[in-house]
């Protein structure tokens, strides 16, 4: 665990901060923290409720207490803002605005001294990275359990123990949690920890914004889960929430509309922070062409997030307005255009696929290069192919709509751009396997996950070629073939890379080493059960089983039973991971600063790193992957003064 | 090195053969009952051949490299500092580009053939509604049926819409699928080439009864079709 001690001179300089004027009880209730977060959230809920009711009363609208409006405003806007204020996410800014004394160099909320500091607003990117990862893996567990439930239901045709609403709700919430609360933010968590270290920076560019972006995330997760308590059940229209279906749904749908806003805001703020950090906070000598590919990957991902995310925010606001304010963006009766929703939604949600993939590409490049003991093959083309995917990624959204009834002429251009994405992606795959060639390959757990990723992602990419071809897509879209494809891309792809990243940086994050044997057991269990679960889905999909159904043709009964059993094994394999991480974190062997003998900067400092990362400012002198080059260094550590002179020279 | 290349090629061929067996020993596609699906299946096999080749190459290099160059975890030497190879990089940019463009052209040709209506196709209007299908034969005085009956060998143009949310009209054996969208009309062509009974399935999540939104499609001979029309009208 990242723990740090305060320097005595810091305490002397600001004694009033370290010996607050009030007693412990007063601080518990009125000081920043979860306790204040809860009661201020309650207070703000009441304020929001009174605001809505007051305005309705003033205008003479009936009924005054309309819960369909009160809940979105009070429960999903003002209460979360109150929570954020209560835990102290806005304290510095509010003090600044109100003219109270502030100290830009106040580091009291920076770094973790005890485990309790992980439950507070903390500005240390290393603490925030771990907060992200623990939170996202919690939601991964919940989302996975949901999948177990509906796989149990799907073991046989017909309805056994769920009802139709619960089934649709579980399917929708599973996908929503996995996408918005696991894959996207888990990558943000890994990047949060690693990117500033890799750049040679003391922290992110905006540490307070960084803390705020993390705390927006649990709000989104709680909203998605709370929808199960709403009258009429949770949102049940898939994670795609297509209009006009979503517009006639019960209250649960509003939780989806608003949850996406909080998750999206979190993504955008983090992405802006990454962009500014990467552009402005590189250590002296760290040119763009010397940045590790993980940094490149997060740079391109952040551009995707910043440009695309407002579109999904818009699409959900429009649906919510249609639902609550009776506008008609997407309802034909009022002149709306039903397909408009899909265009706006996919203009985010296709780039989102790359948001969920590019950071994984970065992780795999680090892992493969360090474990094959070779420079990454074709570094510049690897970086440029990320940029290529960034641009192409914005020109393919309508390939999700080949059967949707959009303009016919749009199909062939969208097919061509979709197929062209295979070129930069192919460059990456071929460069990874070329990096293996004649290497000295260490089959560590992260390396196993990276190699598993390469092969599984190729299968996901190739089924993507089928789906890119319009005629095949017409036959295969909306079937289990799609379910198989997305799981090969997002599980065999993204989740494998997240596991690779967590194992790879585990010693750096915790200062302890994970258990290699359990790690390998975890990999092989996951790899085999993953394929047993999702590969047969290609078959049942092509044969005629649509997705998102609780009942299906008897002919698919046997295979679905096999898939369900395999999915339970897949779920069980995760227990091995959790056990390994928890017991290694508590009492694993102490890790070296650089157990992988990697060259990038995060490995040149202690494990876990010091509170401001670098005691000496590194001077970057070469590329990050110069394995096997005699005498090559990525960076040398210089004394602070000398480095500053270099920076200003 | 030559021996190594031979071994690598042998692994690639072995993987290729295994994957090919998986592709041909199982019947991955439903029996085609339409001329459109025949053409789609041609593209499917074209893409499958390319996919098998690419997967075999990638998997073979991974397996071979791990087999040949795996070292114990405490080994502390480095590999050779190979930074890249411009020729190889050009090849693996150009070859996939050619392959995907070939798939793209073939797909565009099939799409255009599957979308070209012949002379006087049979017109069937499809209406989706939670959670039933309605088929209206406008050529036969708006004859309305909950069962889809089609004469074999005659091109059919389905024009569809929905009265509530988005549905998707899909007959797996026809290989054609089209969303029925409220507020607009969409069309798709099918030329049934085989008599028999098939399932009409809603493929787009449309609410609580989505899984049960099914109808029967029957492809019959022209004379049986005429008799059915007469019976329905009478």
* Rounded Rg of chain A: 25 Å
Spatial order of the strands forming the largest sheet of chain A: 1-2
**H/E element order of chain B:** HHHEEEEEEEEEEH
Please give the CATH architecture of the largest domain in chain B.
Sandwich
The largest inter-chain interface, given as chain pair and residues per side, is: A-B, 91 and 82 residues
DSSP helical segment count of chain B: 4
- Give the averaged pLDDT of chain A, no decimals: 92
Low-confidence regions of chain A:
1-5, 643-649
Q: Assign the CATH class of the largest domain in chain B.
A: Mainly Beta
Corresponding CATH superfamily of the largest domain in chain B: Cupredoxins -  blue copper proteins
Q: How many distinct beta strands of chain A?
A: 2
Share in β-strands of chain B: 15-25%
Terminal CA distance of chain B: 81 Å
Helix percentage of chain B: 40-55%
Shape, per Cα inertia axes of chain B: elongated
What is the helix/strand order of chain A? Answer: HHHHHHHHHHHHHHHHHHHHHEEH
What is the domain tally of chain A?
3
Mean pLDDT of chain B: 95
Structural class of chain A: mainly alpha
């Amino acid at each position: 665990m990242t723990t740090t001690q305060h320097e005595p001179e810091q305490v002397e300089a600001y004694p009033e901060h370290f010996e607050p004027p009030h007693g412990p009880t007063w601080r518990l209730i009125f000081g920043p923290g979860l306790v204040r977060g809860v009661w201020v959230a309650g207070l703000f809920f009441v304020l929001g409720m009174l605001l809505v009711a007051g305005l309705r009363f003033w205008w003479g609208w009936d009924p005054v207490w309309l819960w369909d409006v009160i809940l979105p405003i009070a429960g999903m806007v003002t209460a979360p803002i109150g929570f954020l204020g209560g835990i102290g996410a806005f304290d510095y800014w509010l003090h600044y605005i109100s003219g109270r004394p502030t100290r830009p160099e106040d580091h009291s909320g920076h770094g973790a001294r005890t485990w309790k500091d992980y439950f507070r607003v903390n500005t240390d990117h290393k603490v925030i990275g771990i907060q992200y990862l623990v939170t996202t893996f919690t939601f991964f567990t919940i989302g996975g359990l949901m999948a177990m439930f509906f796989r149990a239901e799907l073991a046989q045709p017909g309805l056994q123990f769920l009802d139709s609403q619960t089934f649709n709700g579980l399917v929708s919430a599973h996908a929503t949690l996995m996408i918005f609360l696991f894959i996207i933010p888990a990558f943000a968590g890994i990047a949060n920890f690693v990117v500033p270290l890799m750049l040679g920076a003391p922290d992110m560019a905006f540490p307070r914004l960084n803390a705020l972006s993390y705390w927006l995330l649990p709000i989104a997760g709680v909203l998605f889960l709370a929808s199960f308590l709403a009258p009429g059940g949770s949102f049940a229209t898939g994670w795609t929430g297509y209009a006009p279906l979503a517009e006639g749904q019960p209250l649960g749908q509003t939780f989806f509309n608003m949850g996406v806003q909080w998750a999206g805001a979190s993504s955008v703020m983090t992405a802006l922070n990454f962009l500014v950090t990467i552009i402005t906070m590189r250590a002296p000598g760290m040119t763009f062409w010397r940045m590790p590919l993980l940094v490149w990957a997060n740079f391109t991902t952040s551009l995707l997030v910043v440009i695309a995310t407002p579109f999904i925010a818009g699409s959900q606001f429009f649906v919510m307005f249609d639902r609550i304010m009776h506008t008609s963006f997407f309802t034909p009766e009022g002149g709306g255009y039903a397909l408009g929703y899909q265009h706006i939604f996919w203009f985010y949600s296709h780039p989102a696929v790359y948001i969920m993939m590019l950071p994984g590409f970065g992780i795999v490049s680090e892992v493969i290069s360090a474990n094959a003991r070779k420079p990454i093959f074709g570094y510049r083309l690897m970086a440029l192919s990320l940029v290529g995917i960034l641009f192409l990624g914005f020109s393919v959204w309508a390939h999700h709509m080949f059967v949707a009834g959009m303009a016919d002429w749009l199909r062939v251009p969208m097919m061509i751009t979709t197929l062209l994405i295979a070129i930069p992606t192919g460059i990456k795959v071929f460069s990874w396997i070329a990096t293996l060639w004649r290497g000295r390959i260490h089959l560590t757990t992260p390396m196993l996950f990276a190699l598993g990723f390469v092969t599984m992602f190729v299968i996901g990419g190739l089924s993507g070629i089928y789906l890119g071809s319009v005629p095949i897509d017409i036959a295969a879209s909306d079937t289990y073939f799609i379910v198989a494809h997305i799981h090969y891309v997002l599980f065999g792809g993204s989740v494998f890379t997240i596991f690779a990243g967590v194992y790879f940086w585990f010693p750096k994050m915790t200062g302890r080493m994970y258990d290699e044997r359990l790690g390998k057991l975890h990999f092989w269990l996951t790899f085999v059960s993953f394929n047993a679960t999702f590969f047969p889905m290609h078959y049942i999909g092509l044969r005629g089983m649509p997705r998102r159904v609780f009942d299906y043709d008897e002919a698919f009964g046997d295979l679905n039973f096999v898939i369900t059993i395999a999915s339970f094994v897949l779920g069980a394999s995760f227990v091995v991971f959790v056990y390994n991480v928890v017991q290694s974190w508590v009492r694993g062997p102490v890790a070296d600063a650089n157990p992988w003998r990697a060259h990038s900067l995060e490995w040149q400092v202690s494990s876990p790193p010091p509170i401001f990362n670098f005691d000496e400012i590194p001077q970057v002198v070469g590329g990050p992957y110069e394995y096997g080059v005699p005498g090559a260094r990525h960076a040398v550590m210089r004394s602070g003064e000398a480095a500053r002179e270099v920076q200003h020279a | 090195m030559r021996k190594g290349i031979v071994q690598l090629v042998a692994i690639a061929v072995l993987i290729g053969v295994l994957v090919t067996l998986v592709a041909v020993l199982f019947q991955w596609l439903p029996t085609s009952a339409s001329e459109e699906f025949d053409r789609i299946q041609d593209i499917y096999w074209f893409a499958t051949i390319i996919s098998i080749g690419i997967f075999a190459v990638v998997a073979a290099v991974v397996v071979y490299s791990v087999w040949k160059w795996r070292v114990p975890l405490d080994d502390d030497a480095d590999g050779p500092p190979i930074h890249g190879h411009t020729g190889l990089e050009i090849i693996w940019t150009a070859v996939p580009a050619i392959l995907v463009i070939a798939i793209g052209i073939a797909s565009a040709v099939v799409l255009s053939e599957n979308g070209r209506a012949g002379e006087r196709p049979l017109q069937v209007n499809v209406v989706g509604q939670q959670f039933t299908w309605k088929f209206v034969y406008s050529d036969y005085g708006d004859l309305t049926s909950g069962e889809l009956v089609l004469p074999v060998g005659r091109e059919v143009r389905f024009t569809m819409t929905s009265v509530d949310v988005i549905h998707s009209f899909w007959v797996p054996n026809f290989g054609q699928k089209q969303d029925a969208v409220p507020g607009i009309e969409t069309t798709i062509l099918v030329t049934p080439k085989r008599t028999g009974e098939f399932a009409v399935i809603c493929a787009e999540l449309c609410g609580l009864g989505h899984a049960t939104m099914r109808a029967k499609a029957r492809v019959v001979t022209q004379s049986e079709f005429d008799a059915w029309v007469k019976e329905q009208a009478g």
